[in-house]
Amino acid sequence: MNALGLSMIVKMGCICSRESININGHKYMVKERLGEGGFSCVDLVENTTTKKKYALKRITCHSIDDQKIAMQEINYYKKLRHPNIIELVDSTFKGSADIVVQATSEAFLVLPYFKRGTLHDCLTLRSFNKNYIEIKEVLRIFNEICQALKFLHDFTPDPIAHRDLKTANVCLTENMEPVLMDLGSCAPAKVQICGAQDAQKLQDIAAERSSMTYRAPELFHVESYCVIDQRTDIWDVHELVLFMLNVNPSERPFIDDVIAKTGDLKNKIDTIV
Q: Where does the Protein kinase domain start and stop, copy by copy (predicted)?
């Protein structure tokens, strides 16, 4: 699922058939395929009544466990309400997965469509044109991403880690406001590892749901007896804040420290400008 970070806005080609999908009484017409991963894809769809465009994420489920994972993603969208976290417009399941008879089901998630694309697209285009974002704007965007992370990390009763934070998983609104997306990788922030079996399980989950380039070191080789917490997300953004570059995960800062440091940098720039 994490492979779809960029797919909400990257066009991979048109869909020739005029497929229509009914979701809880709302009819959507599929306009084109935006992207696809191993067991999911994202289509650009249009509400036939309002003519408003959305990104429709479709997850193919081959088993009951797959359905539970898709349902978990939907539940994260529903309960995590924050200005800098993507909202779920609607959702539904069609069919029933049964691995014995090789029957599949499909989860449909209606999400906002962002014309500007992702932060990755923005940075790539600006780098190509040598039209770089001003440092104050970079700090503003980064600070808002941190606020979204803080919301996840402080969530009650159980803190949540995103586990696949990267520029391709941050959409940009028309006003250049960052919106964190792809909650399929989210998980309880604090995990107590008690033995080799627990370690291997978390390692396998991380390999499946987290991008290798951005994955925290402690998720590549999980120790048999340890505690993994929300600071895995802090590793994901280490390229933007140099003081987070500490190989020892126990000494890595929490999100409040990151926000404070970002604020200090912005204040220094304000005094210079």
A: 28-273
